[in-house]
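hi! just following up on the protien thing from before. the input was this:
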Amino acid sequence: MARMRILTTSEQDAFDNPPLFDHRERKQFLALPKGLVDIAKGLRTPDSQIGFLLMCAYFKAAKRFYQPQDFRDRDIAAATTLLNLWEGAFDPRQYRETTRLRHQRQILDFHGFMPFDDEASDSLATEIATMARMHLKPRLIFDRCVDFLIQNHVQVPTARRLMDLIRSGLHVTVNSNWLP
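and the predicted 3d structure came back as:
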């Protein structure tokens, strides 16, 4: 059976990569509260400092976290300048997963957000089932899922995770409509 296409490949890539800031947006999203900047400046390594600062900026913009290897060069340069570090101070391979996960928890706590866990997944599945019964198009369901998560202060997961939940919800709804 063919797999339902919810986002095009380019839409999925755009969703799963950090936002592309212009100069004004970069300045806006890197203008973080003093508490977060102090945390960044207090970290031991430049990789952690820059990684933390960029994760804060990207979360502020998209309510999502991204992989360090996907961080944008211009954003890295701006964070480096903001922290008064030398050019080339950030190596995504040196920004360890355990450190990154700890930083994600700090950022979520600071903003009052919850991680996208099993409880959030179940809540979203219920919402998807409701939208599926209303016969909304899969793309509209996807967009509403993102809005639902942000409104409920839940971290937005990857496009693949959302699409899998939507496909599953639509499959269950279609099959339950065929029951005698």
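The mean pLDDT is 92.
Residues 116-177 form one domain.
cheers
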